[in-house]
Specification:
289 residues; alpha/beta; 2 domains; six-stranded mixed beta sheet; two-stranded antiparallel sheet; 14 helices
Length: 289
C-alpha cells in the first residue's frame, strides 16, 4: 500500500525517501530587520554558545545545608508522619523545597492554606515520604538554580562593553558619548518611567544613552521551549511593542529562539520584525544608532 506524504512543494528542494522524490519544506521567514538577520546568523554559526557564555556565565552554586536544629525538627515530623508539620518545617527552614510541585508556591505565600487544604498537604507529603530521610535532606539543600541568576550575570557583563556606568545625575546632563545607567531592575524602571515617560510593568535590565538618545532594554536567556520561558518571550515582545516614552526599546534575547524553525518563537520573531536581537550584538547596535 502506497503511503501518502503531504508537503509544501518547493521545486528547488527535494529529498529521497524509499526511492520517492519528496519535496521538503524549506525554512521560511518573512522580511527581517538587520538585527534579527544578524542574530540568526550569529546563533546558527559555530561558537555561539561559547560567545554567549561570556555574558551568561554559569556559576557552580554550593549546596545549602539546613541548620542541625531544623534537621532534628524535620526528622521528628517525618518519623511521626505529621504531614502538615513536615511541610511547615520544610517551608520555614529550607530555601529549596525537596520536590517540585505547582501548589508549593501558594503554600509558601499563604501559611493558613496548610491547615485549610488537608488533601493537598497529604498528597505532597506522600511524595516526601517516598524518599528516605537522607534523600529528603539532600533534596532540601539543593543549590540555587543557575537560571535564577541570569539577570545578574547580564548586568555584571555590561561594563565589559567598555562604556562608563554612571548615576542618574551624570547620565541626565551628558550630551556626548555613550553611558550606562547603574542600578537594579527597579531603579532602572523608575528612571525610565519618571524621566523618559516610559510606561513599564516590570523592572528592566538596561538603560543606556548615546549622545542625546536613550536606549532601554530587557535581556533574557531562554533555555528551554514552553511554559515560563515562552511567557518570558511574551513579556519581551510586549515590552518592545509598547511605544510610550522617549527611548528606543530593544529586547536582547538569546537561546533556542534563534534556531531556525517554521513554527514557534523563531517564526514569531521573524514575522513580528520587532527590535529583537542577541545580546552579543548590543555594542554593534549602540554604535549604529
Amino acid at each position: 500500500m502506497l503511503s501518502m506524504v503531504t508537503a509544501v512543494i518547493n521545486p528547488f528542494s527535494c529529498q529521497s525517501i524509499a526511492g520517492l522524490k519528496i519535496p521538503v519544506r524549506p525554512f521560511v521567514c518573512g522580511p527581517m530587520n538587520e538585527w534579527i538577520r544578524r542574530s540568526m546568523q550569529v546563533a546558527n554559526s559555530p561558537g555561539y554558545l561559547d560567545r554567549l557564555s561570556r555574558i551568561y556565565e554559569m556559576q557552580v552554586n554550593p549546596r545549602r545545608p539546613l541548620e542541625a536544629s531544623a534537621v532534628r525538627e524535620i526528622r521528628n515530623a517525618y518519623k511521626k508522619r505529621n504531614d502538615r508539620q513536615l511541610l511547615e518545617l520544610l517551608i520555614k527552614h529550607g530555601e529549596i523545597f525537596p520536590v517540585k510541585d505547582s501548589y508549593v508556591g501558594f503554600l509558601k505565600k499563604e501559611p493558613r492554606a496548610l491547615r485549610e487544604n488537608p488533601r493537598t498537604v497529604s498528597r505532597i507529603a506522600k511524595r516526601l515520604y517516598s524518599m528516605d530521610f537522607d534523600t529528603l535532606m539532600y533534596e532540601a539543600s539543593r543549590p540555587m538554580e543557575t537560571n535564577r541568576q541570569l539577570g545578574h550575570a547580564f548586568k555584571k557583563w555590561l561594563p565589559e562593553l567598555g562604556y562608563r556606568v554612571v548615576d542618574e545625575a551624570e547620565i541626565k546632563k551628558s550630551k556626548r558619548g555613550i553611558l550606562l545607567l547603574g542600578g537594579g531592575d527597579e531603579k532602572l524602571k523608575h528612571f525610565a518611567t519618571s524621566h523618559l515617560g516610559c510606561k513599564l510593568r516590570k523592572g528592566i535590565d538596561l538603560v543606556a544613552k548615546k549622545h542625546s538618545k536613550y536606549i532601554i532594554g530587557e535581556a533574557k536567556f531562554l533555555t528551554t521551549p514552553g511554559g515560563e520561558q515562552d511567557r518570558g518571550f511574551d513579556d519581551a515582545e510586549s515590552f518592545v511593542n509598547n511605544r510610550s516614552g522617549n527611548a528606543t526599546r530593544i529586547a536582547l534575547l538569546d537561546g533556542y529562539v534563534w534556531l531556525k524553525s517554521n513554527k514557534g518563537l523563531n517564526q514569531r520573531i521573524c514575522l513580528g520584525n520587532n527590535p529583537i536581537m542577541s545580546a552579543i550584538l548590543l555594542k554593534q547596535f549602540i554604535k549604529a544608532l
